[in-house]
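re: that complex we talked abt at group meeting.

here r the seqs, copy pasted straight from the sheet so there may be weird spacing, ignore it
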Amino acid sequence: AQKVTQAQTEISVVEKEDVTLDCVYETRDTTYYLFWYKQPPSGELVFLIRRNSFDEQNEISGRYSWNFQKSTSSFNFTITASQVVDSAVYFCALRSSNTGKLIFGQGTTLQVKP
Amino acid sequence: EAQVTQNPRYLITVTGKKLTVTCSQNMNHEYMSWYRQDPGLGLRQIYYSMNVEVTDKGDVPEGYKVSRKEKRNFPLILESPSPNQTSLYFCASSFEGTHTDTQYFGPGTRLTVL
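got the structure back, here u go
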């Protein structure tokens, strides 16, 4: 079975702190893709990053970075120097190779206080 | 502008009154999908379509119907809505149904069934 677990339900930090959102996944596929989406208070789902299973290189985009470790089936997301605008629900997801569906974690609500 | 649009964005209805939520994409994507988002459950797939005239059930298809007569449109039909279908609904599309593709989401439709 395929599954994505985001154990942190809610995280609260003060602006400028670094924060890491955890994501652990299960799959039997040898090739798979992982995604992170952001859902701000306005409700839309914003694509952040896609990562394939055969590329374990970490990725950095501005204040955002992602750490993919196949050995521990984890795909963690770090925000450096957090800002109030980073307040949102963040979803990690795994895309099924059979049906194309996205299997989402339950989401982590991040609150960044000024 | 490349986008996925949904209408209506908000809907309050009563039990048993048939309704349709429209979804349209202008990116010539083959794959389209509907998800519902509920607190504590993340997003779950309702139906998906790999291409025109090809649809299939997702994880929670009961009480819903879909059709894919044209590539750009993928309406979600609730023949007899019930209160347990009160939810936030998202339509998504991607170029293909493969696991490599990124799914892009519409703005969401918040449905309340009284």
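couple things i noticed - The CA atoms of residues 39 and 45 of chain A lie 5 Å apart. The mean pLDDT of chain A is 92.
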